[in-house]
Amino acid sequence: MKYLFVLCFLFQIYATSANAQSYKYHTVKKGETVFSISQSYSIDEEDIYKYNPGAREGIGLNEKLVIPIDGKATSEKLETSGTPEFIEHTVKKKETLYSLSKEYNVSIDEIKKYNKQLYSKELQMGETVKIPSGSSSESVAMVTKPDSTPVATNKPQEKQITSTREHIVLPKETKYGIARKYGMTVKELQGLNPRVEVLQPGMMIRVGIDVLEDELVIITDERFRFYEVKPQETLYSLSERFGVSQDSLKQLNPALKEGLKFGMVLKVPKNNKDGKEIDDDAYTGKGEDAYTKMNLSESIDNRSTKEIVLMLPYHLDLIDTDSLGTYRNTILNERVVRISLDFYSGVLMAVDKAKSMGISTNLKVYDTRRNENEVANIINANNFNNVDAVIGPLLQKTSEAAAARLESSNIPVINPLSNRSMRGFKNLFQSNPGDELTKKAMLDYFSRNAPGKNVIIIAGGKSFQIKNELNNVLPSARNINPSNNFVSEQELAAMMTGGENWIILESENINLVSSTTSALNRLARNHDVTLLTTNKNSAYESDIVSNNHLGKLKFRYPSVDKEYDTKASEGFIEDYEERFNIEPNKYALRGYDLTMDVLLRLASAEDLYESFEKYPGYTEYYESKFHYMPNAGGGYTNDAIYILQLNEDLTISEANDL
């Protein structure tokens, strides 16, 4: 990546020379005058006054002046403006951010901006939120007619800048570039200059007073462009998006040293590592809507009967014609068959629940026998023309076989459980995010929440790849290299501080996990210690790793599903036990959650594909949540992932530090 910086620097020198245009910010030092500054730069005093009109009335210590090299620069003058007005709204039952945005004609983004807690948690009944008196693009202001009667008129408004100065537009400058210089968002800049549509050199506009510390201002640079930071974006997600390291982004944007902020304008690469221009529209990362919970039961408007096909490997071919004994043995010995039957029980519960909500379902069930040819035979022998969705088959190969056969008809095939990467069929939906996405979710969690904490990374010998990724996300973290799968308490204690200590443990070795958690448990008596990992593997389930230790360490990890709330799901559990004589396990709950999501999406839109456009947020049920994003190679993957915490009383809750 160092080569990128060298190329960038050389290109900047070339661009400055070729265009003969460059500018410097000068911070006024004690005892300096306009005359002394002009002499130090070999320019006339008038050159400074021309682009810094306020300097005629005197300059102050630490004030920033724009110094023209070859006689071109900017100008500054302080003014003040007002503050935004708000309506305080008490949230009622069933109200959502979406419904509030419609009621008050403001964007969801605008509501969140003035209620920061809504970036990290859901809207709560009884909660009071501040609603700005207008949307991000227009707000209602009061003007007076000649007869003094107040009337409403539309007036552009964004977040108000309390102090402003004047800026003379330089050749080649853009709104993004100017916003970046003054630490503003583009919308804020437009709000200060509502009548300015096209920038022209020499034009005087209003800007904020905070000038970034970039000494050299390059107006043109073919290798880079400007990008405005969206809500929920992190340095990690931006580095993934633009294919550069976080260090590279910081080098290109010195303001990032103070932290990433929503609305910042950053200088980013125009092209990816293959030399192709980065297409923002094609980017499949999460937007801010992905963090809004959708309740589709409030949007049911498609009452047609849903045609659902369920494909699972029951191995009915193993049943003897005169006895069920063989099949009972098969159930006991075949884990896949047991999972299929548990999942099927959850599907039946969802179909019944949907029926009580007015959604009729025609469910057809087929046995795939874990065989790709059998899947092809089922599709060839039956009419799939009116099928709304296929749930299953259970495994990767059989799911791909079904998607391949039904791709031309664009019939959705939803794989319920497999976490393996699948081929890119446009109609294939993977409901399990998989290991790579769960890891990325945890890395993003670190990027958001680790700053300000003492982070220590412990990675076993086979975990070198994730160790490198962690150090890229957390450059200030310290590392401990285990010796013979062991970490001593003394070594850990030497790195502890009096604040929050985050220990990230990456290993599948039971001995290393056991020795580390035991040592941390003793240190937690005198230190604030939290244990985290990107991969909660079987080592943490071992009998020699104490759950009590993990609970005391507030163990945090990513997960596709969460532990269901017994109180919230009490009715479901009672109904399930009454029907099947047993408490539902995680596969039964997965069958219910997935089927319920599919049926509600079909009942609130024309088809599954339209539901993703119509409802961009995530849906959530007893144990799972769903937010499907298109894959670059085709198809869709659910990227909704929980970050869970094991508490000291051994209950599990969501870890939310935002």
TrEMBL record:
What is the residue range of the signal peptide feature? 1-20
- Superkingdom assignment: Bacteria
**Where are the stretches annotated Disordered?**
130-161
Keyword vocabulary terms for this entry = Signal
Q: Where is the composition biased (Polar residues)?
A: 146-161
Q: What is this protein called?
A: LysM domain-containing protein
Q: What are the LysM domain coordinates in residue numbering?
A: 24-67, 87-131, 225-268
Q: Does the keyword Signal apply?
A: yes
